[in-house]
Amino acid sequence: MPARPLPLPALLITAAAAATLGAGCATAPPAGNRIAAPPMGTVTTYHRKSSGSLGDFDGRVVWTHAAGSWQGRPMVAFGSAQGTSLHDPQSFALVASLGATGQPLASYDPPIDYAWPLQVGKTWTASTTVTQHPAGRTVPLTTTYRVESWGDVTVPAGTFKAYKLVWSNNFGEVETRWVGVADGIATVKRHVERPATHPQGAGVLDAELLSVQAPR
After folding, report:
1. Averaged in consecutive runs of 10 residues, what is the pLDDT profile of the chain (216 residues)?
2. CATH of domain 28-213
3. Which of 158, 213, 169, 180 lies closest to 12, judged by CA?
4. Across the strands, what pairs with 71?
5. Domains of the chain: which residue ranges?
């Protein structure tokens, strides 16, 4: 499965749901404001195809939203057979990433987050220090983001209004992610590319949403 990431934002960095704009603006992009986390027990299923340093895999990945903890602090956890991402319960920023057996892989100081609210054309640069726990070392991560567009994106789960974000980091990794703010879906679709100059080597990953199941 996927190689242990250098400081790669996890599959599920939660985005915002939408507040509707003024009357008569039904087709305008929503304001990308924060919302509370989805209910515990929510299950999201993706089809993932990846290769190279991002792991040779072609199949379903199922993520379950549950309670977690990090260094004694309560967290929101998105867990799968491939690993878990831990998020701050208030901001939902990414705090840490765990491996398939729950071992710490990376933690982020400050946690990784978007610059809210999301707006088409908005750009920003954010820096964090990543602790790579297996190696016992820290590395700097600087990422530049841009909100490219807003509109329909169609995946097996349906058609969603989504912001298209593109970001790149100081390791040369580039990611495009469609964020369904109006439906509270952090990742509708994503594409990741690592160049041969990346510390872990070249790799490609594509994922798209198959289904969302609310807790019963």
Report:
1. 38 33 50 70 97 97 96 96 93 94 97 93 98 97 97 96 96 96 88 97 98 92
2. 2.40.360
3. 180
4. none
5. 28-213
